[in-house]
Amino acid sequence: MPAILSFINHKSIFFRIHLENCDGIGGCELKSRRVLIIVAALTAVWLFSSLGAYYLEVGDANANIKTVGDGLWWGVVTFLTVGYGDRFPVTVPGRFIGAFLMMSGVAATGILTARISAWFLEEAILARRRNVDERLKGHFIICGWRDDMKDLLEHMVGKDTGTGAEKVVIVANVGREEIDAIREDKRFEKINFVGGDFFRVDVLQQAFPEKASRVLILADRARSQTGVSPSAEEADARTIMAATALGKLAKTAFVTAEIIDPNLSSYLRMAGVTDIIYSRQYSRLLLGTAASGTGLANVLNDLLDPKSGTALQTQDIPEALHNKTYAEVCKAIDPSGQTLFVGLIEHSGNAHTIRDRALREAQKTSNVKKLIDNLQSVKQIRCNSPMFNPPPDYMVPSGTVLITIRVDRGVAMAAGAPGVQTQNPAGAAGLKTGSAA
Amino acid sequence: MGLKEIFPNRDANVEPVQDDILKYLEGITLLEELKADPGGLKAFSEFLSVKDIATGSEIIREGDVGGGMFFLMSGRVMVMKKTVQGDFYPVAKLSGGNGIFFGEGALFGHEARSASVIADEPCRCLVLDGGDFERFCRLYPQWSVGVILRLAKVVATRLRSLNQDYVMLYQALVSEIRG
Predict the structure, then answer these.
(1) What does pTM read for this prediction?
(2) Is the Cα torsion angle B129, B132, B134, B140 positive or negative in sign?
(3) Residue that wins the pLDDT comparison between A323 and A141
(4) Domains (range + CATH), chain A
């Protein structure tokens, strides 16, 4: 039966290609059309054989397929390899048809079984893929895991941060149940997840880093699925690996990385990461302030804790205010003088974008000496380095953001938060007049 | 092309304009040799055409080929160049009446223009076409030698500064590679 064999082969290739391609909606339309074709083909084989057997049998004296209904019944019983034997062909040509139908039946059963298991497989693959929506754009990738991931997300996801859960992709080597536990919370229901080691390029790519706008690489010391938790050096090495990969994969994203050993931060800078969080050093520095008894711990806590009503934040400067003085910019941004202006971050944003912009500006000269100087200064650009309380006549270049302290007076006072506003009004006022002058 | 052909119906105006042109040409050091001989400048002016340019229009576009050399009689122009990425940046602003000329490269061959020149104000230019210049040189070799020598000097100066730029770029590249 070469015809049938080639039919099977053809179909099975069909299935495989089909399995790989049925991702989008278009692919699924194709899927239902292919199912239709198969059903039609099987029906045709059944009808042709049953009616053929009836036609060949009906003239014979010993025939027990005597009506069209008998033929169809015999056809389906034979085709599905059930074979009750209540009806059977007795003529030679009828038996030939019977043999053909039996063999087609075996083949069709195989095809159907393959098809059904393919469907299940497909569903499983899709379900895994569906963790990250491929239409995602401008999203926030979190690389790594922490045991307090949910608390961390609470700071990062929500209306006041401007990042919805559907825009967050977690890339971490944790089991599904960990993510499901987070997704149980209504606010984080739509969080995306890629399972695997975040420092591996193939895993990172599943989070569509090229379209991401921000990336956070955590110093992941969470226990792996094998029960081993990495050492500080291992965690830092992974962070650096991920940062290096992201330097190529996520050229337009703003990458922030957490590192445990501050001595290793130069590697992060080499990888183009300009926003580095030294979590261990921070806590040490904070503990250090206890010796002086200044109460700074509360100040810092309030500035960083979004629940305190006081927030240290950055603010973009509209294009119209570029190349104006610092005093003019502050006045234009907040004429009422309510905002505390702390300073500026020059060359802020993604290192790649900053360099690109600076490089374009540097070339705008016909003087070669100047061109070389300009290009060399591009190399020296330090991205995202803050400048506190610049002189009022300081010219604010483009690509700069303001550092401000937003004070929600209602919240800060009602909560009686011991922070900048309530505990140390003189200091806050001093800061204010100093920067807005 | 003579001036009469440009202003065929305005004979009355031609003479004063031509006087202006002659007076203007006297101030151009490039044409020093022509001044010595009576009729030298007049003969040269026969090969020029007057072109009035509105503010904002492009007199020369970077990358274009040919089109002649321009003497800026009045008005102001802006010289612009393009970076590799295609961003424009200003190189210089030139005001008429100072013996300013540009686009002399077009006299010697069909090379692409190295910068754009855009009228910053309404401008009046005298245009010397490459072919016309050659005809002038062949007709009046006694005068043209001086003009060509001076042009050669201008080109040589530019070549020298280009050479310096080249050396500087070369050094920068080497020190960059060395780290």
Answers:
(1) 0.51
(2) negative
(3) A141
(4) 2-129 (1.10.287.70), 140-280 (3.40.50.720), 295-349+384-436 (3.30.70.1450), 353-383 (no CATH)
